[in-house]
Each structure stands twice: as structure tokens, then as C-alpha cells.
Amino acid sequence: MSEEKIEKKSGAIGETLSVVVQALLLAVVLRTVFFQPFSIPSGSMKETLLVGDYLFVSKFSYGYSRYSLPFAPDLFSGRIWSSEPKRGDIAVFKFPPNPNIDYIKRVVGLPGDKIQMIDSVLHINGEPVKRERAGLFTDDETGQIVQSYKETLPNGVTYTTLDVNLSSTDNTRIFEVPEGHYFTMGDNRDNSSDSRLGVGFVPFENFVGKAQIVFFSIRNQKHPLAVWEWPSNLRVERFFNGL
Q: What's the pTM?
């Protein structure tokens, strides 16, 4: 092989490696600074989010903490360029007892709030949140039919919740949210481990980002790359649904 051909081949390999490295660096920057994809593994946020939903979470919505970075390196404490979560946001955060686990819930309580459940109705600072029947929800995987309710928070954010049965979290004590912390709940009220039970108050530092849009959805726990399963399992109507 001539020297000219060797040089051309080496140049092509170097150019390819350069493109790959640049693409990887761009992906890391996008994931760290802007958006991160997440999938929904459980039904705690039904009917808003379903098992098999894939969504983008904006990392810049709340600013950046150590948990905004891959592997959560202990480079700094608190948040930089911070913006506080709003009541009604669907947020991804690190599970306080074990920051290696990601949770996704709705923010219902802000620092200083008093939160309580009374007969399945959410109360904020002593006032019941407006709640009205919104029809029946049919789970497309289990076939279960559940009563859904439309809730409207004091700031006007509206969403639906599910009320499956009587549970220990339908009536709770009063939770006083400490400064720098938030109270979160799943929309599937009787099937959610959240600030009422298990999760506790969520420190501001633990927030990863705000859920923005569902970009893909597949039922029956099928893998998204199993294209042969798409015809009978894709939820096309959920593609690009804003949250």
C-alpha cells in the first residue's frame, strides 16, 4: 500500500473519530444542560402519565444542582441559576433516602404550606382543593375502570387524579412543609409512594427538572425498539403531548 493511500485512510479514520467524539460531547451537553429523557416504569401518575410513556425533562427549569450532572458528583451544594418549582409542576427528583433513584410526582406543597388529606380531598393551608368528578378512566393494560377527578389548585393548575379505593393515605395528619423543601404526590392517589408515605419532604437540591412533553408511548411494557410490536402497542395519540 502506498504512503498516499495510508495517509488518506488514517485521515478518514481520524475524521470519523472526531465526528463521533463531537457527537458524544454534544449529547452529554444536551443531557446535562437542557433536556434529559425519562421513561415511566410505574402507574403512580396515572392517568396523566402511563407506564411506557417516554418524556423529556427540562434541566434548566429549576436551575442546576449536583443532581443535574451525570453521576451526581459532589462538586457544589445547593443550586445555581435556580428557579423554584411551582405548585402543580410534574417534577423529576432524586429520592431523598436514596439519591440513586429517580422519582416523578406532582408538586402540591410549597415551603411553609400545611398539607393534609381529608376523606380523599387534598387540603392546602386548611382549604380544600376544588375537586369534581371527571368520568371514568379505563386502564389500557389491566382493563381496570377507575373513577377520575378533576382537581384545580389555588394557582389555577388543573389535572386529573384517580381514586381507586379506600387507603391509609386518604386521611393524613397535617404536614408542615419546611423551608427549602416541597411536598409531592402522585396523581394515582391510592397507588403512589410520595410525600405522604415513603418519600417525605423533597429538598430543593434534589430536583432534577420539570417534565415537559411525552414524545413516545408504548403499552404492555414492550421495549421501544421492538418495532414488530408497534402496530398493536403504540399509543400514537400520546406522542408529543405537553404536560
A: 0.85
Is residue 170 a contact partner of residue 25, using CB atoms and an 8 Å limit? no
Measured distance CA(164)–CA(125) in Å, rounded: 25
Q: Which residue has the cell 463521533?
A: 20
From residue 16, alpha-carbon distances to 11, 12, 22, 25, 170 in Å are 9, 6, 10, 14, 58
CATH number at residue 59: 2.10.109.10
- Domain of residue 22 covers 3-242
- pLDDT at site 95: 96
Q: How many domains does the chain have?
A: 1
- Catalytic residues, which ones? 44, 105
Report the pLDDT value the prediction gives residue 167, as an integer from 0 to 100: 84
C-alpha cell at 214: 411525552
**Residue ranges, the chain, pLDDT below 70:** 1-33, 71-73
pLDDT score of 26: 47
**What pLDDT score was predicted for residue 33?**
58
- Extended beta strands in 119-206, E state: 121-124, 127-128, 130-138, 145-152, 158-163, 175-176, 181-185, 202-203
pLDDT digits (tens, 9 = 90+) for 191-202: 999 999 999 999
Residue with cell 404536560: 243
DSSP H stretches of helix in the chain: 3-29, 230-233
Q: Please answer whether residues 110 and 179 qualify as being in contact, where contact means their C-beta atoms are separated by less than 8 angstroms.
A: no
How many of the other CB atoms lie within 10 Å of CB of 30?
12
- Cα–Cα distance measured from residue 210 to residue 207, given in angstroms and rounded to the nearest whole number: 8
